[in-house]
Amino acid sequence: MRNIVLVGFMGTGKSVVGRALARRLKRPFVDLDRLIEKGAGRSVAKIFADSGEAGFRELEQEVVRAVAPKLDQVIAAGGGVLLNEENVRLLKASGILVCLTARPEVILKRTLKMLPSRPLLNGPNPLEKLEELLTLRAPSYAQAHVTIDTSDRSVEEVAEEVVKAIEVREECR
Ligand code: S3P
């Protein structure tokens, strides 16, 4: 079976939904950020601090190259994974790209408690930064096959939406 790849901005629920989806579909769950941390022996925040965003993106690309060829997985990708053309190509070829979205104020509320582990938002004005990044990244996220707004839905409801969206796509093939 093709992979289900969850993409989208930080705080849209990729990891929690991915875990629920994997449980439900009895598939392995792969969180790319956790794989990067495991390989580097450092947290994402430490990688950004030591090697900058460029250093993090290199590790992210290596992990995408390693994971994309395998099948049957539910993959949660980091929010910036689609900024790299090769990542887009590999992940699209490996399965269905599902972009999770949420309103900026919902993202802010969800990410505030985890700002130390989200170096890109961890500055003086996180709302301004996240709105700027959302605008910049809109074309990248638009490349997903399916988009689901998670703002007013529970984790299980979003997982259900993903399953439905995949079934509809399979029927249309
Ligand atoms: C990033 C999102 C983070 C992590 C890194 C960069 C981004 O992952 O990969 O901090 O560029 O949006 P989550 O989307 O899982 O928070």
Textual characterization of the structure:
By secondary structure, this protein is an alpha/beta fold. A 5-stranded parallel beta sheet has the order 2-3-1-4-5. Helix 1 packs across helix 7 and helix 5 crosses helix 6. Shikimate-3-phosphate binds next to loops.
What average pLDDT do the residues reach?
Answer: 95
* Count of separate DSSP helical elements: 7
> What is the general shape?
globular
**Low-confidence blocks of residues:** none
**Largest sheet entry:** 5 strands, parallel
Beta-strand residue fraction:
5-15%
| Strand numbers in spatial order across the main sheet | 2-3-1-4-5
- Note the gap between the termini: 14 Å
Rg measurement, Å:
15 Å
Helicity, in percent? Answer: 55-70%
Identify the quaternary structure here.
Answer: single chain
The assigned structural class equals alpha/beta
How many extended strands? 5
Query: Could you say which small molecules are bound to this protein?
Result: shikimate-3-phosphate
Which series of helices and strands comes N to C? EHEHHEHEHHEH
